[in-house]
Design brief:
The chain is an all-alpha fold. It has two domains: about 1-110, no CATH class; about 170-230. About 90% of the residues lie in helices and about 0% in strands.
Length: about 230
């Protein structure tokens, strides 16, 4: 950097000398080129002012105010214009960069907030999925238990129906046997009455009464059996 500054100072002094010799008709392009070179190596306005003062001292114009110092001032202003423009651009860039950083910081905060919200949403989804899965397991378990109970109930109902059917068959057989015995007894009594119809009247009446009782008993047995079968159905 020091060597570059020395070379810039030498070129500045040479270009300024030529510009002063040419007078007011001198081109300002050399000053503009020096300004660009100063910007390229990072020279600011203060450093360029030092180079300018050093050149004036060399020309013994530092303490003089005349036409040459005015032309030298124009030369310096033209060279410094590139530095000022660059500094303005740099300042504007810094301002824009600061704004971009602020915007980036704001976007980062918004993104962090959105990310936290998304994470909470993911956690809620996982909780809901686990709850749904657990609910599904409970539902399947309850369904299986219900199907088992229904199966057991059907089996029990079937056994009860079989038992009822066996009971009805048993009662039916018993009833048939009892009725058959009763009717057989009635038939025997009637045959006896038929043979004794010409005998003792009192004994005949007693036989008739006994036969009537036997018939009544048979009728009661039939009704009782019918009620028992009806209750079982």
């Amino acid at each position: 950097m020091k060597k570059k500054l020395i070379r810039l100072s030498q070129r500045y002094e040479s270009a300024l000398a030529k510009s002063l010799k040419q007078g007011p008709q001198a081109s300002l392009q050399p000053a503009q080129q020096l300004g660009c070179q100063a910007v390229a190596i990072g020279v600011d306005t203060l450093e360029l002012a030092r180079i300018h003062e050093q050149a004036l001292a060399t020309f013994e114009l530092s303490n003089v105010k005349n036409g040459f110092t005015k032309l030298a001032g124009i030369f310096f202003a033209e060279a410094n214009a590139r530095i000022v423009a660059t500094q303005s651009d740099t300042q504007r860039s810094k301002v824009r960069l600061s704004r971009l950083q602020d915007t980036l910081g704001q976007r980062t905060d918004e993104l962090s907030a959105a990310n936290r919200q998304l994470q909470r949403g993911v956690v809620r989804c996982k909780v809901l999925e686990q709850a749904a899965e657990e609910k599904g397991k409970n539902h399947r378990k309850n369904l299986e238990e219900s199907l088992q109970l229904q199966k057991r109930l059907r089996q029990l109902t079937h056994r009860v129906m079989l038992a009822q059917e066996d009971d009805r068959k048993k009662i039916s057989r018993e009833l048939q046997d009892e009725i058959a015995q009763t009717l057989l007894g009635i038939n025997v009594r009637l045959l006896s009455l038929k043979r004794q119809s010409h005998g003792n009247t009192k004994k005949f009446n007693n036989e008739i009464a006994s036969t009537q009782l036997l018939v009544a008993k048979s009728a009661r047995s039939v009704r009782q059996a019918a009620r028992e079968i009806g209750h079982q159905e």
